[in-house]
Amino acid sequence: MISVLAVTFSAQAQFGFGAKGGLSLTNLIGGGAPHDVMFNYHVGAFVEYRFSNHLAISPEVLFSAQGGSHKLSDIQIGDIITESTKQKWTTNYVTVPVMLKLYATDRLSIDLGPQFGFNVTSKGKTESDNFEANSVDIKDFTETFELSAGLGITYYITHSIFVQGRYTIGLTKTYDSGVLKDTELLKDAFLKNARNGVGQISIGIKL
């Protein structure tokens, strides 16, 4: 019986790979402070091993631009009033989602699983209608590794072209709270507990 099941299981298994990319809506969550969504992007490749008609696993490797922004009160310096002032934080990652795909139909799957992120660049910037400051490198204040959880859906428009929606929420802190006090840019208290929240809308092709 085990041999028969193994042969049947192998016969049903399908292997595919492809590429995907699209729009990301990103922000920093936690800490209770107001923050705004930033428009970013993601792009990368994936493999999919389909065990049966209803179950598959799909590891991915993506470059994911992430981060968030925070609106400040208007500031007056001499005769100049800086309006619509924002602080922006950009944290870019190489992410490795490992999604378990539960196929409800041949075209539609529910995807869930962990995501492992590795910080590549991290910058901060203050800007307003009156000025735009230079970006400050804050990689030393950013955690190098991030663990997230993802949930989404995939729908195949054709046999190989699909659209996908996913939301990932960080389970670990984005910034190193132990060194936040050493920089004015990261003095906001909510950043001490900030985590990445990322919504993704993707289009891809599987070969």
Number of distinct helices: 1
Determine the oligomeric state from the structure.
Answer: single chain
How much is the radius of gyration in Å?
21 Å
Strand arrangement within the widest β-sheet reads: 1-2-3-6-7-9-10-11
Integer average pLDDT? 83
Basic shape: elongated
Q: How do the helices and strands follow one another from N- to C-terminus?
A: HEEEEEEEEEEE
Largest sheet: 8 strands, antiparallel, barrel
Number of strands: 11
Percent of sequence in beta strands: over 45%
What's the N-to-C terminus distance?
A: 33 Å
Summarize the structure.
With 207 residues, the chain is mainly beta. The strands form two sheets. Strands 1-2-3-6-7-9-10-11 form an eight-stranded antiparallel beta barrel. It contains one helix and eleven strands.
Write structural notes for this entry.
- With about 210 residues, the protein is mainly beta.
- About 5% of the residues lie in helices and about 60% in strands.
- The chain has one helix at about 1-10, and strands at about 15-30, 40-50, 55-70, 75, 80, 85-105, 110-125, 135, 145-155, 160-170, 195-205.
- The protein has an 8-stranded antiparallel beta barrel.
- The protein is elongated.
- The model has no long low-confidence stretch (mean pLDDT about 85).
